[in-house]
Amino acid sequence: MRILHTADWHLGARLVERDRLPEHAALCDWLIRTLSEEKIDALLLSGDVFDAANPPQDAVGLYFDFLKRLADLRTVKAVITGGNHDSASHLNAPRELLKRFEVHVFGHAGENVVDLGDAVVAAVPFLRERDLRQSTTGEAMTEVQAQVRAGIRDHYAAQLTACRALAGTRPVIAMGHLTALGATTSDSERDIHIGNLGAVGADVFAGFDYTALGHLHRPQKVGGQENVRYSGSPLALSFSEAGDRKSMVIVDTQGMKIETLVAPVTRVLTRVSVSRASMTEELALVPASSWAEVTVKLDAPEADLDRQVREAAGGRFDVLKVLADLPASQTSAWQHHGPSLSELQPRKVFRELIKEKQIASEELYEVFDELLAIREQKITA
């Protein structure tokens, strides 16, 4: 059996208010062709199908159009799990209909075992805290963390037992959407398990023949293990991922052969740092038609820096962000182009406020983190 592992599509995502739908549409076209050409038997999509709990309708339309084309192939089964960006109820709404087309969707936690014929899959979605423990008042954060991690470990152990009972000698595969300790993150991931509360070691997946992970956007092995992997996002979702080589994973269950499939680049993201004196010459090297984040090294603030950078680009590429790299003596008194509202993170804003008010209280941090987690759970429920 040949299985393709992907994750973190984030349909409906935007980058500095630029629509990514055309890129996602091109990705879906390529993937349909690839599933046929590579003779793939099963597609595993490990969470964050959408970028938000209430995605735009054009993103929802693209999702269902892809699933219709997948069903038309008549050769590929699919297992789709929810991520921390997804609404479990939104994903689950058409699941009974989709099941008739061999598309198995799991937004909520449970005993989510899928028999694909030549392999059995534990389709584990993002595990929210309420799936793992009952909270009580007065708990220390270390106690909560220990209970969450123990709950994740117990959940995968139960799934492994159920899969092995059904599979016999057939391969058993796990899916997951979480942070594995030792893995590399990027700027575009958003944790609901605050401060790596739900991060676990790769040993949690011991006993599975392959583990198809989502949540982290850089493709990578976990703990150096070939059979525990993040496929990564197929699109660069932030400028911090501009240099990443995006990919998916193909697993051949006969001999458990694993190979990487490079995903196509339909929009180049470029992160470049230039000096003020040679800005025009350096920007001439930026790939044409790309979207760029430009950082300019300055000796002193320049009020019209944004305009100067865009003029120097000459329309060859789109400048989405302009940042100033100033000496330390200048940055405290003046800052050019601070973060936009969409880039501000509540946790960071709260910590800056506490620092400004000179309040020394770790308990306030912990309470605020718990409130954030509760709010996120309600949004994505």
From TrEMBL:
One Pfam family, short name: SbcD_C
Gene3D superfamilies in the record: 3.60.21.10
InterPro entries referenced in this protein's UniProt entry, alphabetically: Calcineurin-like_PHP (IPR004843), DNA_Repair-Maintenance_Comp (IPR050535), Metallo-depent_PP-like (IPR029052), Mre11_N (IPR041796), SbcD (IPR004593), SbcD_C (IPR026843)
Domain Nuclease SbcCD subunit D C-terminal stretches: 269-357
Domain named Calcineurin-like phosphoesterase: residues: 1-219
Gene Ontology molecular function, alphabetical: exonuclease activity
Entry keyword set: DNA recombination, DNA replication, Endonuclease, Exonuclease, Hydrolase, Nuclease
Source organism superkingdom: Bacteria
Subunit structure and binding partners: Heterodimer of SbcC and SbcD.
Family per record: Belongs to the SbcD family.
Function: SbcCD cleaves DNA hairpin structures. These structures can inhibit DNA replication and are intermediates in certain DNA recombination reactions. The complex acts as a 3'->5' double strand exonuclease that can open hairpins. It also has a 5' single-strand endonuclease activity.
NCBIfam families on file: sbcd
Protein name, UniProt field: Nuclease SbcCD subunit D
Organism: Prosthecobacter fluviatilis
